[in-house]
Design goal:
Layout: H1 2-6, H2 18-45, H3 62-86, H4 97-121, H5 141-144, H6 147-177, H7 182-204, H8 211-216
Helix pairs in contact: 2-3, 2-6, 2-7, 4-6, 6-7
Length: 242
Amino acid sequence: MFEWLLAPCDPTRVHEVGMHLSWHARSMVMAWSVLVPIGVIAARFFKIFPGQDWPRVLDDRRWWHLHRGAQYAALALMLIGLLLILSAPAATKSITASSWAHQLTGWVALALGGMQYLTGWLRGTKGGPSAPTADGSWSGDHYDMTRRRRLFERIHKSMGYLVLLVSMAAVSTGLWQANAPRWMLLFIGTWYLMVAVVFAMLQRSGMAYDTYQAIWGPDPRHPGNSLRPIGLGVRKLPSEVE
């Protein structure tokens, strides 16, 4: 059994990728398979942190720091992985059907990931009582739920889940192309299953709270509370909880 796990997934090929490709794989797996899912889960399910006295305690930013930290760490690793593969000796880059599949899904994941960072930087101002303007106004893209903010949320949320799925295909085809040991494929597959189970459990427990309410509470005086939450499965709480 131990020997079977250590053997390459395709016995007809040799598992020998060299330093550039091996560290490219490690950095990309850590970025896309570990850090990105952690950031996604933090943003979806921990806007109201366990134990937080909501709605008396609002705008707990632990989810934001975890989400941003995980995604920027992932970005750093993606850039390292990209530089490694671009600088790899040509002899280590075999042209096969699996390599084309990996290149395609890899570049699509990087393109969509880059758009995610861009939309995050262009999300607009916050506003509200926690971030008033210089003249004391509560006006802001997020607080007023302007068209810019609504567009950002729709694009950023939907594209985030799409790029996560594409990255899973990129990692899987990359492991096959590198003819990785079987234990690596089993480990990554088990990890993806665990992430899916955790996601489903947190969703079922009702922890996918609306960002707007998590920051400003359910009081109907806040303009965004009159709108439906953006995102499949995201829920708002009634104003009576106050």
